[in-house]
Amino acid sequence: MFIKYVLVCFILLLHFTKISWAELTKPNIIFILIDDVGWADFNYNVGGNSAIPTPNLDRLAGEGLKFKSHYVHPTCTPSRAALMTGRYAANTGLPFATFPGSVAGLPDDMETMPRLLRKSGYSAHMVGKWHLGHAQWKQGPVGKGFESHTGSFMWDLESYTKLMWRTPLTIMGADWGKSFENGSYSHMAEPRHATIAITDEAIARMKEHDAANPLFLYVSYNAAHSPLQPEPAWEAECNHIPHLWRRQFCGMVVGLDQAINRVITEAKDILGNNTVVVVTPDNGGSTWFGGLNAPLRSGKLTPFEGGVKVPAFAVDHSGNYMMKGGKEFQHIFHISDWLPTFLSWAGSKSLVDDLNIDGIDQSKALQDNSAIRNDVLLELYRSQDSHDGSESAAYRKGKYKLIQGNIRDPYWYSEPTEDKVATSDQSYIPRILENFVRFLENIYGNGPCDVPHIVALNLLLSSIYSRREGYKTLLFDLEADPEEKYDIADSHPYVVKDLLAEIEKIKTKLPFHPRYWMVNQNWTQSFIPGDCSGQTVLSQDHCKFAHHWLDDSADLTDEEALGLQNAVERQKREGVVIVGIFWLFIVMISYVACFRCRSNQKRKIE
Q1: Are strands 309-316 and 28-34 parallel, antiparallel or unpaired?
Q2: Which of 68, 144, 244, 308 is the most buried (most CB within 10 A)?
Q3: Which residues are CB-contacts of 9 (< 8 A; sequence separation ≥ 6)?
Q4: CA-wise closest residue to 189 among 171, 172, 177, 202
């Protein structure tokens, strides 16, 4: 009788004080961010028609909630900035992926997800890739609010050695370590595959966690970003794929399929049922590195659907916070919405009342399948904000989506049926560039050649496409034309005017944008020695690690005092060498072709 009385009083207390269940329970939250995985790279997301086997992810998504209009930004740094701050990337000053050696990072006065969740009583830890600035300690994960970080500051790491290459013949150093909010840190060789290491460390954080407080764990995988170096057993699952890069990429995703299954399974076992796990890529698949977004248009680096709409899902072990059973959430959801949604689950949504964020609390929508957001900024940078002087704006409102600016890649891609990228661009340029990179990889390997791969098939090819396409204003009806095949801008001038007006409103309030392509040329001299004992993967000769190189008091806006130089100009100089090798490659191909032609003619005469 006494227990019933207490229960009735408890229910009345909840009713009359308007205290939510979330305020009393505060779920453990695990956010899993994966790298460069596209719309067609999770099998469940395309009706089982992907060439990549993802049985674990298919099952987990079938148990949870599938997001069918989950939007991010076209490259990694902007999406990560939006996640951490609840703002569109343009409103963080980070509209594009930061260059190695850049001093750009999140603004000092901008609140972050771990800081806010810790104010709500959470413990906050991070494992994996950061890529939001690390010139100063205060720019890194611990400086931005995490109690600990294990992983890398940057991107483009070899899977085992964690080495970064400047050229096929020049190593910058490794990138792996641990840091803590008390100021302590260590760098060490990590011989495990990056996907396995991040998974093991994530599980370790869960086991170490004090259950007195709820846990926020940010798990940020390097995979399936290049260099494409899967475990042999993972790639063996992909032998049916004829194209080398797609097959290697498939192996990386197979590794993620197993890793994410481990994290979600262990989360329930270790943390209990009151745990929610969210899984999303940071941008669309990188089509010239094995990713695929079919039937959506284009991919990473572009604001077309293939670059910004990604296969996300969430698993709520408790069933209290969102729908489950494989239901589909068709309404617009942006990566910036997770911050206010998490705070709402934690009963602390008032923490963002005065922050003027762009993210929208979608906690109610995830329970009743309602539409909360009607519009979203997908990309925005001005010519002065970009490394190549280009500009781009993309905005969706209702069923209409506008893109205005320089088009980096206007083409569609499909599953390859032979050993080459399947693109709708039938010109010879991408074929020559692809074969050129493959030629270099055969000589040096894909780790040392990852920068030439990026320069050739991201920067150079997108520059060629941008000049070819020119400056355009495009409008699409996504309900009638989800593949963005038909530009209706000319027939809908009032819609174009309305969406451009929305973009202009945002432009008037943009914060300072640091020039992310201006870098310290000697920043690698700040790499520090680490512990490379007890393993054979990383040699002592290369046992130096990326680290913060500027004091927290340094003025990052004073480019002259910092000695910053334009990385694009350096890439152009280094590109002269690559161009020389490229033309040597062309001469060799031409010589081989002529030799075969003459041999065939000789046989006919004989």
Answers
A1: unpaired
A2: 308
A3: none
A4: 177
128 DSSP β-pair partners: 151, 220
**Dihedral of alpha carbons 197, 200, 202, 204, sign:** negative
Cβ pair 519, 567 in contact under 8 A: yes
Distance CA 332, CA 257 (A): 25
CA distance 405 to 77: 20
Nearest to 99 by CA among 583, 406, 519: 519
Query: Which helix H or strand E contains 594, and what residues bound it?
Result: helix 567-605
- Residues 31-68 have pLDDT tens digits of 999 999 999 999 999 999 999 999 999 999 999 999 99
CA–CA distance from 408 to each of 96, 392, 404 (Å)? 13, 10, 12
Backbone angles phi, psi at 471, to 5 degrees: -85, 125
Handedness of CA 69, 400, 486, 387 (dihedral sign): negative
pLDDT tens for each residue of 430-479:
999 999 999 999 999 999 999 999 999 998 999 999 999 999 999 999 99
CA distances from 214 to 309, 345, 346, 404 (A): 30, 12, 9, 43
Q: Are 333 and 71 in contact (CB under 8 A)?
A: yes
User: Is the CB of residue 153 less than 8 Å from the CB of residue 131?
Assistant: yes
One-letter amino acid of 287: T
Residue 195: which of 168, 233, 167 has the closest Cα? 233
Given phi > 0 = left and psi -120 to 50 = alpha, else beta, which region is 153? Answer: alpha
Longest dimension (CA), the chain: 108
Kindly provide the b/e burial profile for residues 276-293, where b requires at least 16 CB atoms within 10 angstroms of the residue's own CB.
Answer: bbbbbbbbbbbbbbbbbb
Residue 4: its pLDDT value, please?
Answer: 54
Contact (CB, 8 A) for 83 and 341: no
Beta bridge partners of 360: none
CB 30 within 8 A of CB 263: yes
CA distances (Å), origin 493, targets 42, 498, 503: 37, 9, 15
Give the CA-trace dihedral at 56, 62, 63, 68, to 10 degrees: 110
For residues 497 and 120, is the Cβ–Cβ distance under 8 A?
no
* Per-residue 3-state assignment (H helix, E strand, C coil) for 534-555: CCCCCCHHHCEECCCCECCCCC
Model pTM? 0.93
DSSP notation for 280-306: EESSS--GGGT---TTSB--TTS-SHH
**φ/ψ (deg, to 5) at 404:** -135, 130
Q: What is the dihedral of CA 200, 206, 208, 210, to 10 degrees?
A: 170
The tokens for 437 are 């990179």
8-state DSSP, 196: H
What letter represents residue 192's amino acid?
R
Q: What is the mean predicted confidence (pLDDT) over 147-171? A: 96
- The structure tokens listed for 332 are 């617009």
CA 149 to CA 330: how far, in whole Å?
34
- Reading the block at residue 417, the tokens are 């049926």
